[in-house]
Amino acid sequence: MAKDGPEGKKDPPASMSMIEPRVREIYKAFYKQSYFTPSALDLKTKELIAIGCSLLAKCEGCLEGHIKKALEVGATKQEISDAIVIAIGIGAASAMDMADKAAIELDLHHFE
Known about the structure:
Elements: H1 21-36, H2 43-57, H3 60-72, H4 77-106
């Protein structure tokens, strides 16, 4: 149960508080394996990818955590900016793709 914060407002519940503990542990194990087990990608690269994915997934907590971690593992502000710009480009391409599909479906071609 969320506890009372300032001015009687409820604090948000802890992350994953609605997830059964057994499943929560499976997720945590997967997360640790995907991030911290040596692989072809170094941790800094993984964090930069995670920044872009967090933006597209619209996960504010993820974004803040991955930016902090990226800085901790040596990412520069420019590298973080580049990851953000790439995510913006993918997001824009996604919107254009959806609009193109709608135009085809509705046979609308405004600017040929």
